[in-house]
Amino acid sequence: MLPYNIILNGKTVLVTGVAGFIGSNLAKRLLTDYAELQVIGIDSITDYYDVSLKHDRLKGLEEFGDRFVFIHDSIANREIIIRLFDEYKPAIVVNLAAQAGVRYSITNPDAYVESNLIGFYNILEACRHSYDNGQTGVEHLVYASSSSVYGSNKKVPYSTDDKVDNPVSLYAATKKSNELLAHAYSKLYNIPSTGLRFFTVYGPAGRPDMAYFGFTDKLVKGEKIRIFNYGNCKRDFTYIDDIVEGVVRVMQHAPERITGEDGLPLPPYKVYNIGNSQPENLLDFVDILQQELVRAGILPANYAFEAHKELVPMQPGDVPVTYADTTPLEHDFGFKPSTFLRNGLRVFAEWYAKFHSDK
User: Per the domain annotation, does 43 fall within a domain?
Assistant: First the structure.
């Protein structure tokens, strides 16, 4: 295991996309575990999905008082990012702000260029200038990449050593671009950075555009659910708590700054997969989900599930399988996601029942 070289307690952490699924859960975990840590959160709260869900997540962070500061703005707003870094001087930056979704990128490319490219560039520039005039600056930049970068790769499980030059969606292309930009900035400006390729994150209060959430909404309304590639898809579903655990561990070890043989710094740069390493067949996933929805009282036991399933061809931008090789994560941080799909979907179903009864 790598030794931790960053102490989180007493630090200021910038979390972009803090009203998002991963961002809000990460912020809550940090504020709960580290009594002297402050989180500065920024989020533009776009209407890509129900904003009430985002506001609900933020409400859960209000209990931490002035240890949590929220800024309602976009990371694509360069002036705001410069001002934020000048005022709060974050020691650790976790960039989770991004326009998500593979299919949405086909019809709305502008949103991806603005947030995923321009926004990330603004974060990199702010990290670069955090060292101006001899300042300590940013100790570690951690940023979200995606399993989508593997595109049409045939070899499984997906390894971070694999060549990933064949994206099948604009979303995937922007995430690969993030990795390339981070590598260049790490090389040029000696910024320690770690990219995390997340694999199909799910759990309570998750993104409504994800399959498990969308399927549930449709079944509750009595609508048909569309199962792509005629059910011949496998996904490496990763529970939110496992994702957050991985992020927190990675935050505490910044890649070392080392000088190469040419006298120039080697890029302090790493990329890891965070996935469950146990891909589930989509039809099996739907079967477990429906069982948990019945158990939670969301659907009746006699619900006609077969009548509400429709097997359809593959969608543009989708891939037939995602499967993470997490060996480097296990080796460097002693951690491997391990939440069973049924357990994770059970927590989601219980949350869904409560959330909708409250609404």
Answer: yes
Report CA-CA distances (Å) from 69 to 29, 86, 129, 143.
15, 15, 22, 20
Q: Has 171 been annotated as catalytic?
A: yes
Instruction: Say how many domains are in the chain.
Output: 1
Query: For residue 175, what pLDDT is reported?
Result: 96
pTM of the model: 0.95
Q: Which amino acid type is present at position 277?
A: S
CATH no. for residue 127? 3.40.50.720
Given the residues 112, 158, 171, 185, select the one marked as catalytic: 171
Provide the residue count of the chain: 359
Is residue 283 situated within a structural domain?
no
How far from chain centre, in Å, is Cα 257? 26
Q: What is the mean pLDDT of residues 227-234?
A: 82
Question: Does some domain include residue 95?
Answer: yes
Q: Residue 133 is part of which domain span?
A: 12-203+238-277+323-338
Q: What proportion of the chain, given as a percentage, has pLDDT over 70?
A: 99
**Does residue 285 sit within a domain?**
no
Question: Taking the CA atoms of the chain, what radius of gyration do you get in angstroms?
Answer: 20
Asked if 174 and 117 count as a contact pair (C-beta separation under 8 A), the reply is: yes
- Tell me how far CA of residue 114 lies from CA of 87, 211, 239, in angstroms: 24, 25, 28
- Band (227; pLDDT cuts 50, 70, 90): confident
Burial zone of 83 (CB within 10 Å; 0-12 exposed, 13-18 middle, 19+ buried): middle
How far is the C-alpha of 183 from the C-alpha of 353, rounded, in Å?
Answer: 43
- pLDDT tens for each residue of 124-170: 999 999 999 999 999 999 999 999 999 878 888 999 999 999 898 99
Task: Reduce the DSSP state of residue 145 to 3 states and report it.
Answer: strand
